[in-house]
Prior knowledge:
Elements: H1 2-17, E1 33-41, E2 46-55, E3 60-67, E4 69-78, E5 85-92, E6 99-106, E7 111-119, E8 127-133
Antiparallel strand pairs: 1-2, 1-8, 2-3, 3-4, 4-5, 5-6, 6-7, 7-8
Amino acid sequence: MKKILLLALSAFLFFTSCKKSDTTPPPFDPAGSTWTGTANVPGLSLSNKAFVLTFNADGTLTGSFTNGSSFALTGTWNLRPNNVTMHIFFTLASVSGSYVGQGTLTTNNTKLESGVATNATTPSANLNFTVTKG
């Protein structure tokens, strides 16, 4: 009887000490990173122009769009937990109106592509972008 009890106790301890490993990746946080790539403005026939976005920890966004001259970009960003769509809201220096945009995170969260930013005030300045984490 003691052997059966000892065997049962050993089996219980063996199975309760085994944990399932947590394979859930940590949440993605782009804060403090700069992403570089290109933007196109079809309404103004501009293609493959330098586009830079810097995501700050406080939810603000800075960057630039370069078309011969560099235009400063300022705004905000958000990314909901467990989501691959990043939302951005910004203005470009010397361009009337504000932009509302979004992009899809791909390649293990190192690329933001299929980005579209629309400007209701100046529709000809709508832009498409792709940026990669630097």
